[in-house]
Amino acid sequence: MHLRIDGISKAWGTSTALDRVSFNAGASDFVCLLGPSGCGKTTLLRIVAGLTEPDAGSVHLGGRDITRLPARERGMGIVFQSYSLFPDLTAAANVGYPMRLRGVAVGTIATRSTELLAKVGLGGFGGRFPDELSGGQQQRVALARALAAEPALLLLDEPLSALDPAIRAQLRGEIRTLQRSLGIPTIMVTHDQDEALALADTIVCMRAGHIEQIGSPRDLYERPASRFVADFIGRANLLPTHFVREVMPGFLERRPPGADATWELCLRPEDIVVEAGPGGDAVVADVTFLGNLARARIDWRGQVLLAELPGRSMLAPGEPVAIGATRGAWVAA
Ligand code: ATP
């Protein structure tokens, strides 16, 4: 179902949490709201959920204006960071709860709960209480419960952030597979760029209450619209024009018009080419060997570049090198 957010603004007292935020999400999109702490992600998700009222703007789901509709009538499944299961209900009863509220027949609830628990990898765990489950398992139950209401939209607020890294990576993959197979449009809040890159069809990159850029993970990585996006997503070398003019003049041709100070060239570390040889005018500052790759810091007259090279490269600190780049993107400084 298509979601349209139009001109949403929200202030808390005198501080603006959201300033005219608009975006669309397609029928089975996985959208990640990504941005640093305090940029307004959760506020936006809560407005979509109907838990917070916006000061201005509208929310449409499937063509219907739901801006003033109470949360319980929106048909959305929500999973929060804290597992928020009912502690005195078993996993199966937790999953069955939304169906019970809707008056679904007891037999159907039992069958559906068993199916949903199996879907999230918890077949056989239906009789356990939340305190008999690990954090990752509890979050799976919360996910199954959110799916039980057959939501028109699934909302996930940092659902993985309380989990340890291994479980987190595993559950991340499972959420993606499940979301694809069910085709439910999903909005997830995260401040973790890796999570957003791995999960999203569309990333909405936010900063201080507004949207910096919307696009696919690849768009944002390869064509960041601003220094902020370039820096926030992945590693970036942000290089001033005078450096580009002297070292990689070929890139100047594609620079948008404007004064030197208004643009920087964003080079991803893996796009930097480093060639050892006495003619080079840069020097290897240090190299960190990471197995499959090596991270080198290259110093060109005080401008330090981070380069990622194959692990087998034999660069050594102090070695003279020439540098180039296979691709780059100009970003507003
Ligand atoms: P985080 O990643 O830390 O959760 P966030 O991007 O989700 O951050 P929000 O929780 O949406 O950010 O908060 C945006 C701004 O609004 C922050 O400055 C926050 O302090 C403020 N804020 C959020 N909820 C309230 C509230 N109920 N009352 C007052 N201010 C609030």
TrEMBL record:
Residues 3-233 form the ABC transporter domain. InterPro entries: AAA+_ATPase, ABC_SmlMolc_Importer, ABC_transporter-like_ATP-bd, ABC_transporter-like_CS, Mo/tungstate-bd_C_term_dom, P-loop_NTPase, Transp-assoc_OB_typ2. The keyword ATP-binding applies. One of its GO terms (biological process) is quaternary ammonium group transport. It comes from the Bacteria. Transmembrane segments: none annotated. The keyword Plastid does not apply. GO terms for cellular component: ATP-binding cassette (ABC) transporter complex. Pfam families: ABC_tran (PF00005), TOBE_2 (PF08402). Keywords: ATP-binding, Nucleotide-binding, Transport. One of its GO terms (molecular function) is transmembrane transporter activity. This is ABC transporter. It comes from Luteibacter yeojuensis.
